[in-house]
Amino acid sequence: MKENTNKYTIGIEATLEIIRGKWKGIIVYHLTTGRKRTYELRKLMPNLTQKVLTQQLRELEKDGIITRIIYNQIPPKVEYEISDYGWGLINILDSVCLWGEEHLDKVYGDKALVLKAESDVNF
Amino acid sequence: MKENTNKYTIGIEATLEIIRGKWKGIIVYHLTTGRKRTYELRKLMPNLTQKVLTQQLRELEKDGIITRIIYNQIPPKVEYEISDYGWGLINILDSVCLWGEEHLDKVYGDKALVLKAESDVNF
DNA sequence: CGGTATCCGACCTGATACTG
DNA sequence: CAGTATCAGGTCGGATACCG
């Protein structure tokens, strides 16, 4: 059943719904550097299991954030890419990320900066 | 035990962690219109139980987003207010909200606009 | 009035095994 | 290589009852 369709009161809820998934932020982050194959994503996120990865990718696809490109061949090949629509969200989230990093600085001090240095992109 | 201190890889994770709670967005939203007493918040969000409200407020407080003002008196009086630090986040989230609203338009069409009209503030 | 304690169910995530 | 199925564990939110 579950007719719990209590829709959002404010825009933030809608956005949150989309990136709430534990890994979605990181997945999208990795896609900002370019189209990726499934196993590439797996290598980039070793702690993320196949199942959950697929799951989260499906949701992101459903929300129109990413595009799934299927090469019909053997062995299978699938690539994921941020859609034009998705880029709109990402550009916005960029400032959120900056805030988040500053927040980390405040809360954890320098420790938080370690990982930051590992990437060029902010998001 | 649980030494799962796998800290964030990117800023977005930190921010998400803060507003991930199901009600946090809405709570903060209501506080944007000014300092509120506990029972005022409860009236504004009838579907939110006392326990969860307190819970989410505590977390927001821990993260420095809101301030808890305790009047030491009988009967008790407590007020919640967005901190200066919290406003920093909110200003940023504002553009996220706009995106969210547009997303709603895209996904649900006009239906999504109903609630939008009920408030002056974007967030 | 504001908050804590306890219990429970739903959901989300993860481990493992298997399919085309 | 990419994805599905199944099952188990943890976390979160919600209902209820009680305390200062």
Automatic annotation (TrEMBL), chains A, B:
InterPro entries: HTH_HxlR, WH-like_DNA-bd_sf, WH_DNA-bd_sf. Residues 10-108 form the HTH hxlR-type domain. Gene3D superfamilies: Winged helix-like DNA-binding domain superfamily/Winged helix DNA-binding domain. The keyword NADP does not apply. It holds the Pfam family HxlR. Keywords: DNA-binding, Transcription, Transcription regulation. This is HxlR family transcriptional regulator. The lineage of its organism: Bacteria, Bacillati, Bacillota, Bacilli, Bacillales.
